[in-house]
Design goal:
By secondary structure, the chain is mainly α. The chain has two domains: 9-122 and 133-173, Growth Hormone, Chain: A, CATH 1.20.1250.20; 195-387, Growth Hormone, Chain: A (Up-down Bundle), CATH 1.20.1250. The chain is 84% helix and 0% strand. The protein contains 16 helices and no strands. Helix 6 (123-150) packs antiparallel against helix 10. The longest helix has 33 residues, at 324-356. The radius of gyration is 20 Å and the shape is globular.
Amino acid sequence: MASLLLAIIYLAFISLGLPDSLLGAGWPVMHGYLQVPLSYAGFVTVIIHLGTVTSSLLSERLTKKLGTKYVTLFSVVLTALALFGFSISTRFWMLCLWAVPYGLGAGSIDAALNNYVALHYTSRHMSWLHCFWGVGTIVSPYVMSLALTRATWQAGYRTVGLIQLAIAAVLLFTLPLWNVHGEGNGAQRGGRVLGLKGALKIRGVPQLLLGFCGYCALESTCMLWTSSYLMDTRGVSPAQAAAFASLFFIGITAGRFLAGFLANKLGDRTMIRLGTGVLFLGVALLLVPGLPKSVALAGCVIIGLGCAPIYPSIIHATPANFGPENSQAIIGVQMASAYMGSTIAPPLFGFLAARAGLGLMPVYVACFGIIMICMVERAFSMAQKRA
């Protein structure tokens, strides 16, 4: 039963990843249809991220009241409705309106499922959980590409919305499976709500949040700017740059699958250190002048591989570091800090690149990498002293 439930959780995480890369895939056509500038995608993304931050901060309260299984079900249904809303939008303001439930649906399920797996499953399963998120981010651009070839961008959103509804139906009919771990909750229902202020008072948590924010700032910058960096600094053609930028996603997904075989043996902290070392190797391949273009392209893939174990390992270590009774609140705040980093860092780099050039990207990424590993190491050390 526990293994079958885990498969359902993996399916739910695919649903979490599906909407994440859909806007980027469809926006080159969508902005023309909606008659708005290309840059307006940033407004939609900010609204989605603000919704996600809000629901992440509320996730502890929601999970204690409803339980993980119902938070997961309602969140998938909410994102499905938002996707259908996108598909019927004929004005930009309508897109912004539907972006609110789009973001609210993502934050709670992210925090609730991460905490549930951290409490009830091993580090290996946490790594594979995030691997399935990557599957969702890889699948949806292909769905949108097919829709743009055969129909319209609206059809792409409708198709992914139907997939989300199908996943919601599976979740609905398998609700009894969640009883395999007691009440089917990742938190103690009816227990004390720690909240944001309470979480920040715990020794090591502020440092952990800074480190997690730094990692997500690094990852989101690579996702958005790698293609432009390769074209501007390495003379790579647009088609080749796009292909290797997509390999960053594939590197993360494949890396998380492979990391699952090592995670239980090495432990969370070692996996974070190992991933950070690989990440900096990839950054070095971008930084060293005079290397062949193929080496720089490989560097982008290696950065993705290095990123792979960091996020899931930080999350999985949270109950062990700060106590199972505090983990739902802390993971909710972690999700909020993650989306703050993802929201702020890419446009900040765009502002800096406009003045210093896109060649600054490896240095920018390395700075966030240093912040990440220093703060995470500090948080782990403080948590051990606390224990």
